[in-house]
Amino acid sequence: AAAAAAAAKLLAQISGADAAKDRGNAYFKDRRWEEAVECYEEALRGSARDKEFAAVLHTNISAALRRVEARERDAVKHAGLAIEANPRYAKAFFRRGVLHYDAGRWSQSFEDFRKAQQLEPGLRGLDQWLRRGRHAARQGRDRKNHYRELGLLCECEQDEVKRKFRQKARECHPDKVRDAPPAERSAAEARFKAVGEAYEVLGS
């Protein structure tokens, strides 16, 4: 009787975790990132012993957090936890590679993309990112991260580029600090120039 009760409890936990993951996927599809994260975390609590399932959930959390402002570190952490749970899970390396790319860590990004390719050569979307990563890694420290300058992800649409440029240009316009000390004015001018340069590259 005790064994049957334990088995029933385990099945209920698995079923609950699957349902929470499905809800998370639905929220993710609707671009409700933080609600998706909550569901994936709920699923994690119900499936702690299943390492492969945990790797999928951590990877999903990482992908959702990438879309949430100021959650980059948490996104990278969850990608790392996914790799720790299942070192053979290609998508976890892929997700971490994308996060490294976002942050301008070009070499680390390319290394993760290559690892993902070794594990799963046909992984959807990987080839494009692998080319991006290879090109960026070759340029190294000389490469400017224009997307990060505008607070954008590199797969954004042109309308978003324009919107972010206007927002950033207003925020750091030198006229806002015309009465500030010279060092502060100089910093604002440099930032404004960098924002303009980023828009020239991305908005064309």
From TrEMBL:
Residues 145-204 form the J domain. CDD domains: DnaJ (cd06257). TPR repeats lie at residues 17-50, 90-123. Keywords: Repeat, TPR repeat. InterPro entries: DnaJ_domain (IPR001623), J_dom_sf (IPR036869), SRC_co-chaperone (IPR052758), TPR-like_helical_dom_sf (IPR011990), TPR_2 (IPR013105), TPR_rpt (IPR019734). This is J domain-containing protein. It comes from Zooxanthella nutricula.
